[in-house]
Design brief:
The protein is mostly helical. The protein has 2 domains: about 130 residues, no CATH class; about 280 residues, no CATH class. It is about 80% helix and about 0% strand. The chain has a two-stranded antiparallel ribbon with strand order 1-2. The longest helix has about 35 residues.
Length: about 425
Amino acid sequence: MAHLLHALWVQCLIVTLAGFMIGLEMKSYRMRIHPNSARQIGTARTYTFIAIMGFIFQMIGTELYLVGFVMLSAHFLFYYWHKLRQDRLGILSFLVASLVYGFGVLITHFPIWIFAFLFVAVIFILNAKARINLFVQVIDPQEIETFAKLILLSAVILPLLPNTPLSPYLPISAFKIWLAVVVVSLISYIGYILESYFFRAKGYFLTGILGGLYSSTAATIVLAKKSAEAKGGTNIFAASIIIATSVMYLRLFVIAFIFNDNIAIGIFRNLIALSLLSAATAWVFYARRKTKDKEEQITTQSNPLELPTAFLFAFLFVAMVFVTHVVLQHYGNTGLKVLSFIVGFTDIDPFIVSILTSKFQITTTEAGSAILIAAGSNNILKALYTWFFSRRKAGMHSAFALTILGALTIAAGLFLPRHHI
């Protein structure tokens, strides 16, 4: 199959079809966006010939290919000058034509997936104008700036950071510290984007699911407070709070798998079983809900890519590495289990990532046990939150369920078999 894809006649056929399809898409784009405008340059046949010309010229020689591109650019330059006289500024036709002209080089000198990706990208972008305009209207410009800052820090600073332990008391490198910040923040950011822009008109149950991607604790607090204000909806609030914890187990597995797949595989069965049990419990409450109860739009999250939030996570992460190292040195695995239980009553992400990434003198079984115990005690913390903030049946039901789940999770951590890891 690979030999067939690299055959010249197949490459020529692919380029020709791609040029023709993009030409059709350009024609469709003009009919949708500029139905009453003057005649535009290029048809489906024009883009097909541009693709064929680029393929043939690059086969003959670099000089001819460059001459062809210069002539194509000169043609569009004259066309653009004509557009300027009519107060039309768009250069989309030239950009698309230039890309189509380059298809021949792409398919003969690079892997086929690069050509396929760019072809799909061109088609998608041509169809995305309406969605892009809508996106610009609803998105907060500050969030784009925040995301850009994190990308800059990750792409520029991360490769430059040393990957050696900072000190005997901090068996973690600066590289892994910032890598942990980036990974955890991005996982939370997925939930934030889904909640803020893709599922804005959501109910409480979906709020719990998306909140679990960001922070099941934050989702629990918000939903418990809302249940205290609502007149009804006991079952829907209990279901929403519990489903956030179900997603939390899956989130922990993803984080564990990214940083240490051996530990992740060792606790996979436990996390999946606990997640399914949580989901089944949530579904029991959800099935008993009253459909007439009105569900208001609420949000559980702030942007996790804000730099103060990222730096706070980094500080807590380093603190957890230090504390865990000291506890292990003086109290061994028993001390680690006690620490795991205590940490569960705080933000568990920094502790869990420190276990996954630091070079502690512990086995993968002991690491997996610590993660499960921390997750279990965190469920007990959430049970206290639901009881304190709700004080209604919704809080009592979900607090009881979360306490049971917490106890089961802690038991799974305490009796984690060694042969599972």
